């Protein structure tokens, strides 16, 4: 009877160690739950970004206004027959000329 009791105590001790320190322990489960919460937050942000990109792609595929806006702002394109005016501030032009290295 003493041997059975000793074996049960050893098994109980091993199970307690695994419960508190081993793989699948309470602290391990808590850490994993925090990682899941952080990943869920990250995924929500990425889903919002993806929705915005899908909307932009849809606009580019169907709407010419969006394509025209991108061409004008990013490539500096103008329509045929339009006149482009560039207004330069004299002070900024002087500062840019003074800061630019001279070519020799």
Tell me what the structure shows.
The protein has four helices and no strands. It has 104 residues and is mainly α. α2 crosses α3. The longest helix has 37 residues. The mean pLDDT is 85.
CA-based shape: elongated
Q: N-to-C terminal Cα separation, in Å?
A: 102 Å
Strand content: under 5%
Q: Helicity, in percent?
A: over 70%
Q: In sequence order, what are the helices and strands, one letter per element?
A: HHHH
Structural class: mainly alpha
Number of helices: 4
Q: Mean pLDDT score, rounded?
A: 85
Q: What's the main sheet like?
A: none
Radius of gyration, CA atoms, in whole angstroms? 34 Å
**Count of DSSP E strands?**
0
Return residue spans where pLDDT drops below 50 for at least 5 consecutive residues: none
What would you say about this model in short?
Helix content is 76%, strand content 0%. It is an all-alpha fold. The mean pLDDT is 85.
């Amino acid at each position: 009877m003493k041997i059975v009791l000793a074996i049960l105590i050893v098994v109980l001790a091993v199970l307690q160690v695994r419960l508190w320190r081993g793989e699948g322990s309470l602290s391990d489960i808590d850490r994993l739950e925090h990682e899941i919460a952080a990943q869920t937050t990250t995924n929500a942000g990425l889903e919002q970004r993806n929705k915005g990109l899908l909307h932009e792609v849809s606009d580019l595929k169907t709407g010419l206004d969006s394509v025209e806006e991108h061409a004008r702002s990013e490539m500096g394109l103008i329509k045929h027959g339009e006149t482009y005016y560039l207004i330069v501030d004299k002070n900024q032009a002087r500062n840019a000329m003074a800061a630019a290295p001279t070519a020799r």
